Amino acid sequence: MGIADGDTLTVLTASKTQHKMHLAEIDAPEKHQPFGTKSKQSLSDLCFDKDAEVTPLVKDRYRGSSLVLNARAWM
Predict the structure, then answer these.
(1) In what order do the strands lie in the sheet with 2-5?
(2) CA distance 54 to 61
(3) Residues 6+ apart with CB under 8 A from 60
(4) 9-67 per-position pLDDT tens digit
(5) Phi and psi, residue 43, nearest 5°
(6) d(CA 66, CA 60)
(7) What pTM does this model have?
(8) Rg of the chain over all Cα atoms, to the nearest angstrom
(9) Would you tell me how many other CB atoms lie within 10 Å of the CB of residue 19?
(10) Distance CA 57, CA 73 (A)
(11) Residue 27 CB burial class (10 angstroms; 0-12, 13-18, ≥19)
(12) Cα 27 to Cα 18: distance, rounded to the nearest angstrom
């Protein structure tokens, strides 16, 4: 798994396929913005080495191949 910023991550499926995801209804700072590094670290702390059920909602036209997922997967 990889974390791009506070609302974008790459997940690895059970079949070892990677998917870049953008968390639905989350607006976090980008890496270059104030608090961007802290936001990225917070998402990493939340999901590192965790299993989650990912529910794709829609294809995100602004982030290319990104999918949008239900952020409640870890709650």
Answers:
(1) 2-5, 8-12, 18-23, 67-69, 56-59
(2) 19
(3) 22, 66, 67, 68
(4) 888 888 998 888 888 778 899 889 999 999 999 999 988 888 877 777 776 666 544 55
(5) -65, -40
(6) 6
(7) 0.72
(8) 12
(9) 15
(10) 12
(11) exposed
(12) 23
State how far the Cα of 19 lies from the Cα of 45, in Å rounded to an integer: 19
- Cα(68)–Cα(75) distance, rounded to whole angstroms? 17
Question: Any idea which residue has 């917070």 for tokens?
Answer: 42
Q: Are 22 and 66 in contact (CB under 8 A)?
A: yes
DSSP string, 37-60: HHHHHHHHHHHTT------EEEE-
Question: What letter represents residue 48's amino acid?
Answer: F
User: Cα–Cα distance between 34 and 36 in angstroms, integer?
Assistant: 5
Q: In this structure, which amino acid lies at residue 2?
A: G
Give tens-digit pLDDT for 3-21. Answer: 989 988 888 888 998 888 8
Residue 19 three-state SS: strand
